[in-house]
Amino acid sequence: MKLTISTFVDQDYLSVKEGFNESLFVKLSPPFPPVKLLRFDGSATGDLVALELNFIFFKQKWVSEITEDKLTSEEFYFIDKGVELPFFLNKWTHKHRILKSETGSEIRDEIEYQGPFFLLTWLLYPAMLLQFAYRKPIYKKIFKKAS
Predict the structure, then answer these.
(1) For position 63, which CATH number holds?
(2) Which of 58, 92, 115, 120 has the lowest tally of Cβ within 10 angstroms?
(3) DSSP per residue over 65-131, as a string?
(4) What is the CA radius of gyration of the chain?
């Protein structure tokens, strides 16, 4: 299943690129399930990000590896792929794109995921949509035009 969410922000794409750090990652974590950051290397090829999702009665580990990153005169992107996923996911690829625009930049989350069976993949879609829509106001607040 594929999901794409775009957010336009006021800062230029290179400033936004610099803001994609551990502090932003923590702020982007939704209220449920609570997320504990176990490791954050960054957003360069070979870096790892490890999380612990707390579902109250049990916890799940999620580890992603940055498999690619690229900076051009028009965009910066990096791709994380799940290497250790929670029980409800079999596949996870997330391309984080920061594209240059005339008035700032566009942050585009391009997600491709798959559950362990077809029906669960479809049932996860509303939750995934909400989890990433949650990021939009955070991006806008953090990457607003400097006054």
Answers:
(1) 3.30.530.20
(2) 58
(3) EEEEEEE-SSEEEEEEEEEE--TT-SEEEEEEEEEEETTEEEEEEEEEEE-SSHHHHHHHHHHHHHH
(4) 15
The number of distinct structural domains making up the chain is 1
Contacts of 105 (CB under 8 A, 6+ apart): 8, 9, 11, 12, 13, 16, 98, 99, 143
Q: What is the pLDDT of residues 29-77, one digit of tens each?
A: 887 888 999 999 999 999 999 999 998 899 999 999 999 999 999 999 9
The range of the structural domain enclosing residue 9 comes to 2-142
Q: Kindly state whether residue 65 falls inside one of the protein's structural domains.
A: yes
Using an 8 Å Cβ cutoff, are 118 and 37 in contact?
Answer: no
Q: Is residue 147 part of a domain?
A: no
What length does the chain have?
A: 147
Give the global pTM: 0.92
